[in-house]
Design brief:
This is Metallothionein. This protein is mainly beta and about 55 residues long. Strands 1-2 form a two-stranded antiparallel sheet. It is globular, with a radius of gyration of 11 Å. The model has no long low-confidence stretch (mean pLDDT about 95).
Length: about 55
Amino acid sequence: MTTVTTMKCACESCLCVVSLSEAIQKEGKYYCSDACANGHPEGKGCGHQGCGC
């Protein structure tokens, strides 16, 4: 059995892969940042290098 420790951010346009231990969990989904978890208020991106969400 393999234990999953990382997962792609649940935000569709986001390219980030997050560690489940560090991810922001909201409604059973895992996000890389508050911006992604909150649906990008004011169009704010996650700010991670190389990601254009």
